[in-house]
Structures are given as C-alpha cells and as structure tokens.
Design goal:
The structure is a single chain. This protein is an alpha/beta fold. The protein is built from twelve helices and ten strands. α1 crosses α10, α7 packs across α11 and α9 packs across α10. The chain is globular and about 60 Å long.
Length: 334
C-alpha cells in the first residue's frame, strides 16, 4: 500500500536513515541521558504523517524516558527500506504494515509483529459524496488503484463476493496517489483507507466521501499497520521491548485523549513543513480506529492472521505461508 506525500512542498530532502530524525521537542526529564538506553524506531514512510503522533507526543511527554528509553524515531530513505533496516538490525523496532512483515518473513528476515496499530482493516473503495456503489455496481466501472499485490488481492476478494473478477473493472494505476484520479473524474472510484485517501478527500476535495468497506465484502479484518521488532534484538532485550510497548500504549492512549495536544506536538516537531489541515483531520480520522484504548488494544489474534494468510495464499501473493504464530507474538505487550 502506498500513500501520497502530503507535506506542503517540503520533503526531508537528502535524508539518510539515521540522519532523518525527529527534532527533540523538550520532553519531561525523568532520567539522565546517560541512564537511558537508545531504541531505534524506524517508520513506515520517508515523510512524517499523522500516524506518528502518539510516539511524537509520548516522547515529548517523557513516557519513553520514564521507561528508561531514549527513543530515536527515524524515517527510511524509501518506503522499501523499513523492513530492510529492521531485518538487518539497523533498527530495533518498526512501524510498518502487516504485508511488509509477511513479505519480509518470506525472504527469511528475522522480524515479527509485536503489536497492532488500529483494530480493523479500514481499506475499501472510495467514491465521491452522493455516489454510493454496491460491489455488484462496480462492474464496468473504472477503479483507481495502487500497483501493489495486496491492493489487487483485496479488490479481487471484494469483487468475488459479488461474483465478479478484476477483469470486470477497468483498473487505472496511480503513481503515488489515487485521490486526484477521482477528483479529476478520471475514474469512478478509488481504493484506499479512511484515514489517508478518505482524509484527503475531505481536506482537498472538500467533501465527505462514500466508503465501501472491504471487510464487509470478503476481505479479512486484519489491521493494516503493525509494530514489529527484530527477533534477535527482542530475544536479547525482552524487558526493553516490553518497556517500549508499555510506553507506546501509554502514548497512544494519551494522544487519543488529547488530540489537539498531539497535533501541536507534530506541528512543533515539523514547524511549517506539513499541511496542518490535513494532519489535524488525519488524526481525527485515526482516533476511532484506535479507540477505546484498553488492555487488548495492541493484542494480535492468531485467527485473524490465519484468515489473512489463507486469503493471500489463495490469491497467489505468498505461495507457502508459515504458520500464523510465526509472524507475531504478544509476549512483549503490557
């Protein structure tokens, strides 16, 4: 899955992985710098987005320092580098996607999911306000998509629920953003998630888009975003991994409860190099996917993983998936 770059004309230019760091935002001093252990946390995207608000705010509030962690939040040079750096140990933990974890495991990378970010799969088909479609009504329609295997697989599963195939629609591939295709009326519908493409429709398109959820039409309800860890680092530092997840859970809960403070922390960290209207709306659209924050908020479920693995095997995305429990663990959760 891809997302558009939405910063207001500013990309973190010339950044390499370990130099593209979030600026310090004056967190609460809870321990001396010398007593903290650095944990390198690589992100899913080369440019900061609203999904990062919890750990930006949590670092600012001192939640990670309270756990003895000097959290180093870094951005990858490209979207393809997140799991490369995690798998080779150049990062300890990652914010990534479920499919990136599965593809990395297929390549033998020593990574595993250690928590989820969000409680459901919020991917689906998006159309303009007032133009609501059923899956059956997509026959013959043009669909803006991203050119990745999982997007096509999810769309195929949705269409299958109405007796259709990918051949029954006209797929139009977007380079990095499906939304302009829809706003320029070059397609009838697009694929995307509620808190990215859906957010962009609201802020850029100035409308409340229609959303046809994939999970209501044959697609596994597996959360898209995950926290992952390097398995060698996890085994060598189990208490530190638990501390990271405790601080992260606390950070998510606080950011959900204090949305304006979270948006302001993001603004402070990135100054003018972002779209404030988009970030505020994106975080507002993300909060329902995280709420309520409780003891099971980050917990991973074997049955849900198994349903995903069955689906991607059927679609030929992964030929021989591993047993579900080899992709994730809950042992580092609070």
């Amino acid at each position: 899955m891809k997302r558009r770059t939405f910063l207001a004309g500013t990309v973190l230019a010339g950044a390499t992985l370990l130099s593209t760091l979030l600026p310090a935002v004056g967190g609460i001093a809870t321990a001396s710098a010398a007593s903290l252990t650095k944990v390198t946390f690589i992100q899913e995207w080369p440019v900061a987005d609203g999904f990062w608000i919890p750990w930006i705010l949590g670092k600012d509030k001192g939640f990670y320092a309270q756990e003895g962690i000097d959290l180093e939040i870094v951005a990858p040079p490209t979207v393809a580098d997140t799991m490369k750096f995690l798998g080779t140990g150049r990062a300890n933990v990652a914010f990534t996607t479920v499919m990136d974890i599965i593809f990395a495991k297929e390549q033998g990378a020593p990574v595993e999911a250690i928590g989820r970010y969000g409680k459901e799969n919020n991917w689906g088909v998006i159309s303009e306000q007032g133009k609501r479609y059923t899956v059956a009504e997509l026959k013959g329609k043009s669909v803006g998509i991203y050119n990745d295997a999982w997007t096509k697989a999810q769309l195929a599963l949705m269409l299958k629920s109405a007796g259709l195939t990918l051949n029954d629609v006209k797929m139009v591939t977007a380079a990095d953003d499906t939304v302009p295709l829809l706003l320029q009326k070059r397609v009838d519908v697009i694929t995307g998630i509620t808190n990215a493409e859906g957010t962009e429709m609201t802020t850029t398109g100035k409308q409340q888009p229609e959303f046809l959820p994939a999970i209501a039409h044959g697609v596994p309800n597996t959360p898209i975003f995950m926290f992952a860890g390097n398995q060698q680092w996890l085994k060598a530092n189990p208490q530190l991994a638990k501390a990271f997840m405790r601080a992260t859970e606390k950070s998510i809960a606080y950011a959900v409860a204090h949305p304006d403070e979270g948006v302001q922390a993001f603004a402070t960290a990135y100054s003018k190099a972002y779209d404030p209207i988009y970030i505020k709306q994106q975080w507002s659209d993300t909060i329902p996917l995280l709420s309520p924050v409780d003891s099971k908020s980050l917990q991973l479920d074997a049955a849900i993983w198994q349903s995903l693995l069955i689906a991607i095997k059927a679609e030929g995305i992964v030929k021989a998936p591993l047993p579900a429990d080899q992709y994730f663990t809950n042992q580092y959760l609070p």
